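Q&A FORM
Asked by: J.P.
Topic: structure of 4-hydroxy-3-methylbut-2-enyl diphosphate reductase

PROVIDED:
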Amino acid sequence: MTDAAKPPLNVYLCAPRGFCAGVDRAIQIVELALERYGAPVYVRHEIVHNKYVVEGLRRKGAVFVEELDEIPPSDRQPVVFSAHGVPKAVPADAAARSMFYLDATCPLVSKVHREAEIHHRRGRHIILVGHAGHPEVIGTMGQLPEGAVTLVETEADAETVEPRDEANLAWITQTTLSVDDTRAIVAALTRRFPAIVAPHKDDICYATTNRQDAVRVVAPKVDAMLVVGAPNSSNSQRLREVAARAGCERAFLIQRASDIDWDAVGPVANLGLTAGASAPEVLVEEVIDAFAARYAVTVEEVRTADETVSFNLPRELRQPAAE
Ligand code: SF4
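REPLIED BY: S.T.
REPLY: Here is the structure written out as tokens.
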């Protein structure tokens, strides 16, 4: 079809979108480890929640495992821990097995781990706002002995949770939550337990907040919104929800262009497009190309924040390689 014969489509591209500094660093750690130590480099759990990224690293020689005992005991190749963080027992287990490990935990997740430890040392029971079963939640709860942290997932949980000692409480959160939902949950906790100690600075990270803010601005002016991201990616799921709540009912999470359900998306004149923090830009471009095959597309970027955050690599990868 020539462009003249295609219906016009405005694509509003949310910015910031896609890779955050923590994801960027985690991928770089695996790539640099492969360069420096050769294949295989073991990676415990998906390094970030994105199939495309995982497959790309697998092709370069990364071997993904769920647990350390899947790694042959005689193998001295490095093992990388994912950006989501791991329970304390995991590095301890790696050390006991004399494994060489590199920790790709996002520094903003590590910050929450440290907060949890400080609260625990000060005798506070911790309420963690997050999603059960998410690797970050498993990692954060695993920083402290069993029973030290209680998970609260919803406002209803916050209304009914019964901590041991109401006077000695603190709350922390997963980094990739919905800003709005968390506000409501924390309001319920604070109303019920006025002495509860809050984080110094929000635990929801800058990347999650910025991506949600951009979606909130774009969603009211589009007929449909697509979020490029994985179904097990918390921050991507939240972006879809934020779009729906901000007035765009046709909001979909897709892994890549081949997932677009054209019937569900329906006819569109204005489309919003964003990507979760673990989705590479190439998949966003693929979606634009798919629309360009059916529509005469004009792309406009809607930027609500500039991001300049970057994190240092682990020391082992900053030092020059031994000759
Ligand atoms: S989403 Fe936030 S916490 Fe998670 S890896 Fe990215 S910067 Fe770190």
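FOLLOW-UP: The longest strand covers residues 8-15.
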